[in-house]
Write a structure and sequence with these properties.
α8 (166-174) links the parallel β6 and β7. The chain is α/β, with parallel strands linked by helices. α1 (15-28) packs across α4 and α8 runs parallel beside α9 (189-195). The model is unreliable at 221-232 (pLDDT under 50). The two termini are 21 Å apart. It contains ten helices and nine strands. It is 46% helix and 17% strand.
């Protein structure tokens, strides 16, 4: 089974760095920053989408400037203001022992995603790290997953997408990939269920069971479908 992992809110908790970088960019543009809770809701989606909402304008030049300011701080400091979720390393070990082939598929630019994976010494678990480009290409999760499937020659029905936000789920389903939602990140149970997540995991230890359920369902049509329920 091929397993694609989102990064922010799934493998790592980037809250401290991302919020600080949003505030840095908004302050430089003399825009009042909203409450932290509002900024937390922007962890996951592409930056262009987030800054369009924060600035309340469609001025591409102003949005580009905001993104540039955000990345100015993020590249130097923000990407390290991050923490690996407890239990993730152990789950990756078990999934690899099961014979799964693991990939990272994140809307974050590849150049930053690779540095984060290297910083947390997770590179040994993943065949490849896929992300967007700095010009915004493949920032949309649907396009990114399609790109990963093509680039890695993966069969969609033998592939799982694990993520914490609706766009992870929607992107997977559009590409005929099985979505598994995680509840330790920044998407709510309602958000993930409404988007159509087939399984929801409350903690990283549940990922192995969830992937096993999907794998068994793919291999044996007589196995009752596990889809639409919580693992655990």
């Amino acid at each position: 089974m091929n397993v694609l992992f989102d990064l922010d809110g799934t493998l790592t908790n980037p809250r401290e760095g991302i919020l600080a970088c949003f505030k840095y960019a908004l302050n430089a543009l003399q825009v009042e920053s909203p409450a932290d809770r509002t900024l937390e809701g922007l962890i996951g989606p592409p930056l262009r989408e987030s800054f369009t909402a924060l600035l309340g304008v469609d001025d591409e030049a102003r949005i580009d400037r905001a993104i540039s300011l955000y990345r100015e701080r993020f590249s130097l400091k923000g990407l390290y203001e991050n923490a690996l979720y407890p239990g993730i390393s152990e789950a990756l070990v078990l999934l690899r022992e099961m014979g799964c082939t693991l990939f990272v598929a994140t809307s974050k630019p590849h150049v930053f995603a690779q540095r984060i994976i290297d910083y947390f010494k997770l590179g040994e678990f993943f065949r490849a790290v896929h992300g967007s480009e700095l010009d915004g290409s493949n920032a949309d999760k649907t396009k990114l997953i399609a790109h990963v499937l093509r680039a890695e020659s993966l069969t969609p029905t033998e592939t799982i997408m694990i993520g914490d936000r609706a766009h992870d789920v929607v992107g997977a389903k559009v590409n005929s990939v099985v979505p598994i939602g995680v509840l330790w990140g920044y998407g709510s149970r309602q958000e993930l269920a409404t988007a159509g997540a087939d399984l929801l995991c409350e903690e990283p230890q549940m990922l192995v069971e969830a992937v096993s359920l999907v794998d068994n369902a793919e291999r044996c049509i007589s196995v009752p479908s596990p889809f639409g329920r919580r693992v655990g």
